[in-house]
Design goal:
With 108 residues, the protein is an alpha+beta fold. It has three helices and four strands, in the order ββαββαα. Helix content is 23%, strand content 10%. It is extended, with a radius of gyration of 27 Å.
Length: 108
């Protein structure tokens, strides 16, 4: 059985000629709050008030992949009967013109 050597860390050279180990930099800053408006740290954990971890990254990923995607709804949700979308849905059908002489917002 061949002996596997550990993969060497990839070092990057900056424009000023300094060598930077990106993996070491990521590991050192994974608990620091990330820049942006998502309220997560650099690792991906969701942060609560005061910067405490509310949800671990593993839990967030598990919830994401457990939710079903692309399922069709058997009964579409219609708005109330006074809305113009409801009237369009009722008036539009085979052989009918959309609007029937009425003006609807967004349609010309």
């Amino acid at each position: 059985m061949p002996v596997r050597r550990p993969t060497p860390r990839k070092m990057y050279r900056t424009m000023q000629g300094r060598m930077v180990d990106i993996e070491k930099l990521r590991g050192a800053n994974e608990n620091v709050r990330a820049v942006g408006n998502m309220k997560v740290n650099a690792r991906g954990d969701v942060l609560g008030p005061g910067g405490t971890v509310a949800k671990q990254k593993e839990q967030v990923m598990k919830e994401y992949y457990e939710t079903p995607k692309g399922r069709a709804i058997d009964t579409p949700k219609l708005k109330d009967k006074g809305s113009w979308i409801f009237e369009i849905l009722l008036c539009s059908g085979p052989g009918t013109s959309l609007g029937l002489g009425k003006s609807y917002p967004g349609f010309k």
